[in-house]
Every structure is written in C-alpha cells, then in structure tokens.
Amino acid sequence: TPLRLEERLDPDGDAVGPTPEFCLVAGERRVRAAHLAGVDEIPAIICSYEETEALKVALLENIQRENLNPLEEALAFQQLLDGYGATQEELSIMLGKSRSGVANTLRLLSLESEIQEMLQEEQITRGHAKVLLGITESEGRLRLARLCRNRGLSVRECEKRVQSMITADAAPQRATRRKKALA
Predict the structure, then answer these.
(1) Which of 34, 57, 76, 159 has a beta carbon 3.0–4.6 Å from 39's, enabling a disulfide?
(2) Using the 8-state DSSP alphabet, how is residue 38 labeled?
C-alpha cells in the first residue's frame, strides 16, 4: 500500500491521525518535499525492524547527509558506538568508510571545547583539527588553533608548525638520553 501523505501530515508538515501501522525511519525530508510538491503517493520500502534497529537505521541515514559538520558526524558516530555496541570496524562497514576515517572522526571529540567550537563554526577545517591532534599538550594545541584561525593558516602551514613543535619537544628528551648513555 502506498503511503498516503495527506493522511499523515497536516498543512504545517506535522504528523496527525491515529497511530500508524508503519513508521517512517528514513527519508523524512523527501516525504516533506513530496508533500510540498503536491505528490499524493510515494514509493516506499517496508522493512520490519525492532525499535533499536529502526533508531540505528535512522541515525545512519542522518550521518549520510552531506551537511553534517565534522563534530556532528563525530557525535553521531559516538552515539552509534555507545547506544548500539557497534565497534569502529562495524561502523566503518555500515557507513562505507575506512576504519581509520571513523577513528579520526571520533578523535575530534577529544579536542578542547574551544577548538571544537572553531571547527563547528568553520573557523578551522577538519584537516586543521586532525593535524592539531598531533600535539599532545593542550595549551600548545589551543595556541596553534587560535593562530590558524586568526591568521588563516593553511593545513600545510599548520602541519609544518606541528612538526616543529614536536621536534622542539623531542630535543630536550634526546639530550637527556645522551647524557644518561654517556654516564
């Protein structure tokens, strides 16, 4: 049976009527667009899902939308991992992404809140954020993130600065090891 839109949506696009026999899991935007276009029936795929599986499918559908920012995507990934016990490997297969891509996206959640805000507000890119994760010290990471934002540094310039910070941090450790070896 085709989904009859006028039975399920009022003029404001809100659901009305008795509890439906079917539940829309994915494609809400397409249904609303069809309603606005005056289309009375739409093709639909009917599946039997347990409630948790339906929520998982709906969340996966939302993740696939192109307009999620990297932080929203990371939060959705984390929600799937926490809520459904999926592993990063399983998530990568479900999404058709590499496991390392999933892991790198999740690592964005470990950034300081100020850097997460910069990413969300598109003051820095996902590339910048990924490079900044190479700095373990929080204050140095914040300082470089602010510099990237304020000076409009490219990801390549950010990479160079991260490498020089890592090299500078490693120099005193190498000197200490040499002294111990000579003693």
Answers:
(1) 34
(2) T
Q: Is the pLDDT of residue 176 over 70?
A: no
pLDDT digits (tens, 9 = 90+) for 82-122: 877 888 998 888 888 899 999 999 999 999 999 999 999 99
The β-bridge partners of 4 are: 41
Distance CA 19, CA 41 (A): 19
Other CB atoms within 10 Å distance of the CB of residue 25? 17
pLDDT of residue 127: 96
The residue type of 120 is Q
pLDDT one-digit tens code per residue, 36-94: 899 888 887 777 767 667 766 777 777 676 678 899 889 888 988 887 788 899 888 88
Residues in the chain: 183
166: which residues sit within 8 A by CB, 6+ positions away? 134, 135
Write the secondary structure of 72-132 as one string of H (helix), E (strand) and C (coil): HHHHHHHHHHHHHCCCHHHHHHHHCCCHHHHHHHHHHHHCCHHHHHHHHCCCCCHHHHHHH
**What residues are annotated to the active site?**
28
- 10 Å CB burial of residue 81 (0-12, 13-18, 19+) is middle
